[in-house]
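During the no-cost extension, the postdoctoral fellow (Dr. R.K.) reprocessed legacy sequence entries with the updated structure-token encoder. One reprocessed record is reproduced below for audit purposes.
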Amino acid sequence: MHSFTAQQINEILHGELVGNTSVQITGVEEIRNAKETDLTFIGNRKYAKFWSDSKAAVAIINDNIDVEPGENRAFVKVKNADLAMAKLLEAFQPSTPVFESDIHPTAIIHETATIGKGVQIGAHCYIGKNVTLGDGVVLYHNVSVFDDTTIGTQTVAWSGTVIRERSEIGAQCIFHNNVSIGADGFGYRPADDGRGLVKIPHIGNVVIGNGVEIGANSCVDRAKFNSTIIGDGCKIDNLVQIAHNCVLGRSCIMAGHSGLAGSVTLGDGVIIGGSASIKDHTTIESGATVGAGSGVLRDVKAGQTVLGYPAEDARLMLKQWVALRKLVK
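Re-encoded structure tokens follow.
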């Protein structure tokens, strides 16, 4: 168990220590549920009113919030409590599961595979023909990496992840449980005789940049031809669908249950809210935001925020909603 004094927490965050306490901090908790040995945070004035009743001995607090810590309690004042808390959580982070041996004896590794230095491969993993694993790659139990795939240095794939053939994965990526990379895209055409559907082959691959994180049970489908591309630094939540031939720029964010249909293009820094759906062959330019639950049916300009179904400019959509509410009263 990690344990810190208020002074040590302040040293990590380079903040201003106000007050003092002898309590050793062993955990982190929301202000209303915190115990005496927990650290909490106050990033908004509306939460300051809960401090007097909170049992927490230490809080990270924005330096523009005027509250006194009280007896045997302390504040670490910072410019942005949310960012400071994220930094401190790294110090409290538990260690990851330990490998008893770097490569488990039940792992199946093709003789043509290239395994870098310090690679760890868990039980019942499968590594196919001509696969290349860079230095420090970690594959937890039951991960499958199929033929001709390359994975960059220090990438981590958690149990159940399947990386299909010819995928190109960058360095320092994280794939959480049961991620699917490179499955066939969803493509069919009517049969010539009008009876049923004929599957369209998908012969492309998936290319994922550096520092990409993909949440549990999310899917990135291979391209019909060429590549489905996920740019450097993209962060994908759980239960997200990215269809064939999509292209994501750098540092895009997709929240849970959102989805891109085929051949969608996102610029750099695009944010897709939870449960939002994007029509095929749509372009969302850099810096745009799609609100949660929205349905995007046409292109979105750079920096624009859209809401609703069909999605429109956020300001226009909010005015429409206000007008509708007035009509029904």
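The first helix runs from residue 6 to 13. Residues 137 and 154 are 4 Å apart (CA to CA). The remaining legacy entries will be reprocessed before the final report is submitted.
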